[in-house]
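re: ur question from yesterday

yeah so i grabbed the chain u mentioned. its 317 aa long if i counted rite. heres the sequnce exactly as i have it in my notes:
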Amino acid sequence: MIAPHSAAPPDSPRAVRKAVVPAAGLGTRFLPATKATPKEMLPVVDKPAIQYVVEEAAAAGLDDVLMVTGRHKRAIEDHFDNAFELEQALAAEGDTVRLDAVRDPARLADIHHIRQGDPLGLGHAVLCARHHVGNEPFAVLLGDDLIDPRETLLSRMLDVRERYEGSVVALMEVAPEQIHLYGCAAVEATGEEGVVRVTGLVEKPAPGTAPSRYAVIGRYVLDPAVFDVLERTPPGRGGEIQLTDALQDLATGGTVHGVVFDGLRYDTGDKADYLRTVVRLACDRPDLGPEFRRWLGEFVAGLADGATGDGAEHRAA
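ran it thru and got these structure tokens back, copy pasting raw so excuse formatting
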């Protein structure tokens, strides 16, 4: 388990205690599975994707989490609440392993919920958190981006925020042909390895116009000044209020830094990467990994030998 981040003292104006998790998207890329089930609740092995995100926040020492949800997202609230009847049934059976698994989500942090209402973009979702966050710095963790639990990206970002103040974004170098899928940062060196100063940002640049190969991924530590900027930020790309546009405004003042991340990240908003995520995390599980890796090796070998993957290996057995 990752050790909790050593946050600034509670009376410090720079202490980061709160995390915001935007979770109001429609999940159209996963229809029809997300017709009635929030995309954030799709299972990654045996936990919903959003639980990994909340666990990451808690591991970094953030014990106050605000979920910004929308209509048809009640399942998220239920997941992070107590389930009395289920817990009572498991306790009566003496099934302490599953009982702990059911209770764990509600014990991760002090979790709150608010509805975005109108789907006006990530910037608007962050703005919805203003009353809860107040005049404090806070983290934003996107539910589609899972950072491997063994990584310490968020804790590194909190450290950078304490030393430089302002806002901090997570950056990952991607292939030139993929940069148009992300917000992209123009950067300059700070003299500190893995930390850059962000001088400009553009949301999903047109091919050939990106200022760098540094993509903004779904982790932010934001100064509360971002709220005033978001209030006056007009709709941008896609007719939505873009967080990238607000951060561009702050970057011109030299108050945005980036932490360059080269670790394990999973994009569960993409079907193919979602499948890769499930396979990778299942392989890493001590209870599932050995048998699953054996089967996976046999399955891949069968494909290489010309098998169709239609279950013939089971019939042969």
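noticed a couple things. The two ends are 39 Å apart (CA to CA). also The first strand starts at residue 18 and ends at 23.
anyway ttyl
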